[in-house]
Write a structure and sequence with these properties.
The protein is α/β, with parallel strands linked by helices and 456 residues long. It has 14 helices and 14 strands.
């Protein structure tokens, strides 16, 4: 472990590779020429790093790309144009004019409060939670969109909570299919101005027009392996999404995770000690458009009877400077992760606290694995408000990336892989009843039902 830790610090390449990608490729939207370039680059880097097994997993996807968007609000002294960006998987061509109704955080309780006013309205919705009752759990923007559509909304105007006129994109669709109404995001400052008018009793109307494009494309998850020396049939899978939205370069989301995985693969391939279980590295495409690559790969594994070989999945999505690991698994997994974290803590007691969490969350590439009973792990990270404020936005660029955060991804995820790979016995997958109860206990039944992903 100590030798691996020193080598990862001395020979780190992740940040250098990410910087090259930012300069030479730019964004990595699935289905775009840049997305294909990113796939090729990842394939080449795995091969140049000496990974003995490198392959592509092709899948087809309906890839959405933005065209034009215009938001005009009238009802004040004059009509005004408001800067907006379309959310993904919105209609290809539409123009809707409707009264603006503020539904606050867009949760079920908010829709019940507003009642029939939602029907035929352009609803204004917070992306985050604002003045929510204690204990409230936020929903993903796609889940808020689904609820609004279910209640008869004609359009959705999401309000970002990040100051500085930052506009956020992302999918408004849970499953990657086009939704039936336009949805766009405006800045918090513009949202505050509209809300002030509404509070003063000024009725507002919005005209939201957009043209977008959607076409069937072929994309590839990029996969590499280091075969296990003792139990090669058992696989520890570590993955993260390579794709990114098109407003910026996706340096933090998810260059931080995906290029750390490339460097992790390089470091483990170069290390003299080989893992006892097979380590499989996967860079997923299509995550941003509805977990397309991970859903396709999990379904392939299920059809081929290979899911049982995946002992656990570790997801690196916007991770950096891990302070511990989260785990969602049946009995025994928390103990394994806790013991492993204690060992990793000895490598660097200052940088790695050895924390363990059992929080379960959705909307990243671990979700399809989890819903099929595969235990999932993820590094616990806090990248800071300045990073999270640029999530899915035009400011997500290389200046936000701390090179040491990527080095520490490799330093601490690598030992976790070695420890899991060498464990004499790993706990099992979830039983069906155990998974169901775990998701219920985590408060995820409602969101999964909204998205049509509740398995029961």
């Amino acid at each position: 472990m100590r030798a691996f830790d020193l080598a990862t610090q001395r020979e780190a390449m992740g940040y250098q590779w990410l910087s090259w990608s930012v300069s030479h490729i730019g964004h990595r939207l699935t289905g775009s020429p840049q997305g294909a370039k990113a796939e090729n680059a990842a394939d080449s880097l795995f091969r140049l790093s000496g990974l003995p097994v490198v392959q592509r997993f092709p899948f087809t996807a309906q890839a959405w790309s933005r065209g034009t968007v215009q938001l005009t609000v009238s009802g004040m002294d004059t009509s005004m144009h408001i800067d907006a960006v379309a959310l993904a998987n919105t209609p290809l061509e539409t123009s809707v004019e409707a009264p603006i109704v503020d539904i606050g955080n867009g949760l079920a309780i908010d829709l019940d409060r507003v009642g029939e006013q939602v029907k035929g309205a352009a609803v204004m919705v917070n992306l985050g939670l604002v003045n929510a009752p204690e204990g409230s759990r936020n929903l993903h923007r796609s889940e808020k969109a689904a609820l609004a559509i279910e209640h008869g909304a004609a359009a959705i105007i999401f309000v970002n909570q990040v100051e500085g006129h930052v506009l956020l994109t992302g999918t408004a669709s849970i499953n990657g299919n086009l939704i039936g109404i336009p949805a766009a995001c405006i800045a918090t400052e513009d949202g505050a101005r509209l809300r002030l008018s509404l509070q003063e009793g000024v009725p507002l109307r919005a005209r939201l027009s957009m043209t977008n494009k959607s076409e069937q494309v072929r994309a590839n998850d990029i996969i590499a392996e280091i075969p296990g020396t003792k139990w090669p049939e058992e696989v520890i899978l570590v993955g993260g999404h390579l794709d990114s939205w098109d407003l910026a370069t996706g340096a933090t989301d998810n260059g931080l995770g995906s290029f750390s995985i490339l460097d992790l693969a390089r470091a483990m391939a170069a290390a003299p000690i080989k893992p006892e279980r097979t380590i499989r590295f996967v860079l997923f495409m299509g995550e941003e458009q509805g977990l397309l690559g991970s859903r396709a790969l999990v379904e392939h594994y299920r059809e081929m009877g290979e899911l049982d070989r995946i002992r656990c999945m570790i997801n690196l999505d916007m991770t950096g400077n891990p302070r511990g690991f989260g785990v969602a698994g049946p009995e025994g997994w928390k103990d394994v992760v806790t013991a492993s974290c204690a060992t990793i803590h000895e490598l660097d007691t200052a940088a790695f606290a050895g924390q363990v969490s059992e929080e379960v969350w959705l909307h990243s590439d671990h979700q399809p694995f989890l819903l099929h009973g595969v235990p999932v792990l993820y590094p616990l990270s806090d990248l800071g408000k300045h990073v999270y404020g640029c999530y899915h936005s035009s400011c997500d660029d290389i200046h936000l990336v701390d090179p040491q955060a990527m080095v520490n991804n490799v330093r601490f995820v690598g030992p976790m892989l070695y420890l899991l790979a060498s464990a004499e016995q790993l706990p099992s997958h979830f039983s069906e009843d155990g998974l169901r109860q775990r998701l219920i206990d985590a408060g995820l039944e409602g969101p999964l039902r909204i998205g049509g992903d509740w398995p029961w």
